Structures are given as C-alpha cells and as structure tokens.
Amino acid sequence: MEDVQTPPVPAPEPKPRRKYTRRKTNRLIPRAPSEPRIVTPAGAGQDAGELEGLSREECCFDCVPERCAISGAPVCIHPYKGGIKPNMQSDPVIVRRYQHARKLLARQAAERKV
Prior knowledge:
single chain, mainly alpha, 1 helix, 19% helix, elongated
C-alpha cells in the first residue's frame, strides 16, 4: 500500500460581514425650550371635599359624565370601577389624585372593619 499524500485543501474564504446600521427611528426633534411644568402637591388649592362622597360603589359628588373629579377628563378613573388609564399614567397630577382616592377608600374600608 502506497501512502499517497493529498495536497491540503485551502479553507474557503469567509463571506464579508454585513454592515450593521442602527435604525434611527427615535430621533429627538429639536424644539424650543418650554416653560417647566409646575405640579402642585396633592390637596394644595383644592377644596377639602373635592372627593367627598367617594365610596366603593359610587363616584364623588363632583363627578359628572362630562368630567371626572379625579382625572378632570370625561373618563372615569374610579379606583374600583375602571382604574387609571395608560395614557393618564404619565400625568403626575392625575396619578397623585388617583393615589389620594385609593388611600381614602382604603381608610374607609379600615373604618368599616372596626
């Protein structure tokens, strides 16, 4: 048996890598600086009874179909009925009023247990 040496097969050349280009869909649009939004603390400048009449089943006395007392919009965000909507979660004033309403309802529930 003869030892036949075969010539080494050269490795194939690698394909060139694809250039990765990052999408630029979220470009910041330069805008003129606006005035800073001043957010008042919850309860500041509000009547003490703004959420008066709020219960597990009923909305506040100030709630009407055209305006919710918590959100100030024509959408009810009662904590036990619908809750805060996703498009309102970025507004700190609405979130504070919603949290205040939740705490008020929790306090009422605790008082009922006693």
